[in-house]
Design brief:
Elements (H helix, E strand, L loop, with lengths): L21 E4 L39 H7 L3 E4 L6 H10 L33 H6 L5 H8 L4 E5 L4 H10 L4 E5 L8 H12 L2
Parallel strand pairs: 1-2, 1-3, 3-4
Length: 200
């Protein structure tokens, strides 16, 4: 049995034709800006609602991103070190349902049993070969999950090594879209994603 898929987009193109592209979504950086705030926000990163004592940066999540993500012609998948906690903590702030979760080394399996207390380092699931090439730990699992389908990957840690490897090993179109972590997702980013996804 394959991994569970989300129903944000209705699960296809009106029930006929090929499935929609996948969108693998990181949390820290794209949804939760961090680091030095941009010049246009001299007072600090914008916030939305009160501070969460457990996760003090959660109020940097713009709730308007939820409807914009849900409107994209794709199937959303979490690809984040938040793992399944993204469904418990991040998704409600965006008004999104629970989404499938990419796990390190999962090869396309949804992460359903991992505790929110589990921690992942940047090298979890990454082989010595991948480390030598400079591949992100998500790169191989992303391709295994996509299984030849077009996909977009939104992250603040994508490098040229990841782009080269995906280009050489993935038979379908892929967009590796790096987001500036100090800004998070912007209107321009959504424009790029919508245009690409609409044509794949």
């Amino acid at each position: 049995m394959g991994p569970a898929r989300n129903d944000v987009d209705g699960g296809g193109r009106g029930g006929t034709g090929p499935p929609r592209p996948l969108l693998f979504l990181d949390v820290d950086g794209p949804l939760i800006p961090f680091g030095a705030p941009p010049r246009r926000h001299p007072g600090g990163h914008p916030t939305y609602g009160p501070v969460d004592a457990t996760h003090p940066l959660l109020n940097r999540i713009d709730p308007e991103h939820g409807p914009r993500l849900a409107a994209l012609p794709c199937e959303l998948v979490w690809a984040t070190t938040w793992m399944s906690e993204a469904n418990a903590t991040v998704a409600p702030r965006l008004g999104l349902p629970a989404l499938p979760v990419l796990a390190p080394g999962a090869g396309g399996s949804a992460d359903v049993g991992r505790s929110a207390d589990d921690e992942w380092s940047a090298d979890v699931g990454r082989s010595a070969e991948d480390a030598w090439y400079g591949l992100h730990w998500k790169t191989r699992p992303l391709l295994a999950w996509a299984a030849g389908r077009p996909f977009a990957w939104v992250d603040d840690e994508i490098t040229d090594a990841d782009r080269s490897w995906v280009s050489a090993h993935h038979p379908a179109p892929a967009l590796l879209h790096r987001v500036e972590p100090g800004l998070g997702l912007t209107t321009a980013d959504f424009g790029v994603l919508a245009a690409w996804l609409s044509h794949h």
